[in-house]
Amino acid sequence: AASYTDSSDDETSPRDKQQKNSKGSSDFCVKNIKQAEFGRREIEIAEQEMPALMALRKRAQGEKPLAGAKIVGCTHITAQTAVLMETLGALGAQCRWAACNIYSTLNEVAAALAESGFPVFAWKGESEDDFWWCIDRCVNVEGWQPNMILDDGGDLTHWIYKKYPNMFKKIKGIVEESVTGVHRLYQLSKAGKLCVPAMNVNDSVTKQKFDNLYCCRESILDGLKRTTDMMFGGKQVVVCGYGEVGKGCCAALKAMGSIVYVTEIDPICALQACMDGFRLVKLNEVIRQVDIVITCTGNKNVVTREHLDRMKNSCIVCNMGHSNTEIDVASLRTPELTWERVRSQVDHVIWPDGKRIVLLAEGRLLNLSCSTVPTFVLSITATTQAITYLSVFSIQALALIELYNAPEGRYKQDVYLLPKKMDEYVASLHLPTFDAHLTELTDEQAKYLGLNKNGPFKPNYYR
Length: 463
Known about the structure:
Adenosylhomocyst_ase-like_sf; 37% helix; Rossmann fold; alpha/beta
């Protein structure tokens, strides 16, 4: 029997379907609302691996600290995102959601959210036009004005700036969780065009280390295995970029016995790569010999048509950065090259002489397009996002001030990093899962270090 996620027998665009959930609502657009039961089971599994979000939900749902919040979100639509959305809903927020990647939506989870009453506009395999249509359906709705933005990549923020700039008069702030989106926000701020406060979640330590480093360390192997069934031992791999994502990918591949090369523009990251035992090269120096090329830079045209022309037969090419700009896929859509679909998210691109490369997810984010990511890690990231919205939480005499409940004037029209205390709080919520026991400073030790016994234990610049 076909899997419940198999849509091969139904090529009708969700935009052309008339669907309603069991309550009669049609304010959503998903692949198949009948898959909701399967999605609900996946969400229930995810809840078991997201202890901090569930603790936040239990602790604050009576107080409804997000009452009145109208959050429009654009992230990956997965079981883990569903736990975040339902937590925000339990705390009083109204949410409307679209996907930030055309391949990462889990159709059954989107159906479960729609069945629960969330206006969700997303399905796996959207076209570019579908992508922007879904974002517009989240934003442009009569009688509903968002007052908070949760973005992953900056596309939602960009769309509102472009199409509905007047909405920013009522928006209290933006929360952004990706390198790409944060870069866009800093560009807006530098140009004097950022008209609301923005919170940079990406550069919080719990996001950088757990989502970018540890998550990618596990999910890079999962994505490559599911798509290619390859063996890693002895393979030559070049990883472009040695930031947190690159570090995670390199560590995983090295542990599996691969020979790993690194390209990097930053001398500090480059030195780290050398000290970690990786050979630092320029891409041109190894492009003819490597078996796998992985981009992790957040930049554009890292792998150009010239590189692609010089790759050896059956080289695997993929991207672990947020955007689809790192590999020049557009240059491959020319008459002399033949595209051959192997399986979902796997293409052969064949040259006239018979040489072929294996392109994964058409150059989009590998792990969320072709596999899944560890739920526990996303619990950390999602909790960081959630706390960014929630004030009234305090831990050990220090209030967590955030955008939604912040007094007018506290946050200017700029990009802010999350306080170290919040990072420590998110981490502490996850320690009970490991039966971990924190050591406490004595009064004498705290005085000697010049710290509060309850933290924060590191300065905000510490990474």
